[in-house]
Amino acid sequence: MMKVRGTILVLLAAVLATSAGWAQQGPVAAACKDDIPKYCAGKEHGGGEVRACLEASKDKVSAQCKTALDTTGPGKGMGQGPGRQ
Fold first, then answer.
1. Residue 72: CB partners within 8 Å, gap ≥ 6?
2. What is the pLDDT of residue 5?
3. Where are the alpha helices (DSSP H) in the chain?
């Protein structure tokens, strides 16, 4: 039984690590890959900290990063299914 628990914990850790990696590969992360280390070094991915930093630095970030910020995220139709407002 202990071996099964250990295996489950290892699998759970792998899933969580993969999920964190996915959060860092979204459209903003991809479009702002050069801007993030320049303007938001040390900010945590996955909790909105990087996006908030980029939004605060919007006048300095690249054009492609601005476009990603303006066209994705809350209020931009992302994550809303049919019939949801």
1. 26, 27, 28, 78
2. 60
3. 2-23, 27-31, 35-39, 49-56, 63-71
Yes or no: say if 28 and 51 are a contact pair by the CB < 8 Å rule.
yes
Q: Which residue reads 């991809």 in tokens? A: 30
Q: Which of 39, 24, 30, 42 is nearest to 67 (CA)?
A: 30
The per-residue pLDDT for range 20-79, each reduced to its tens digit, is 444 457 999 999 999 999 999 999 988 899 999 999 999 999 999 999 999 998 766 554
- Between 9 and 51, where is the model more confident? 51
* DSSP classification of residue 80: -
Neighbour tally for 31: CB within 10 Å? 22
| Residue 26 CB-density burial (10 A; 0-12 exposed, 13-18 middle, 19+ buried) | middle
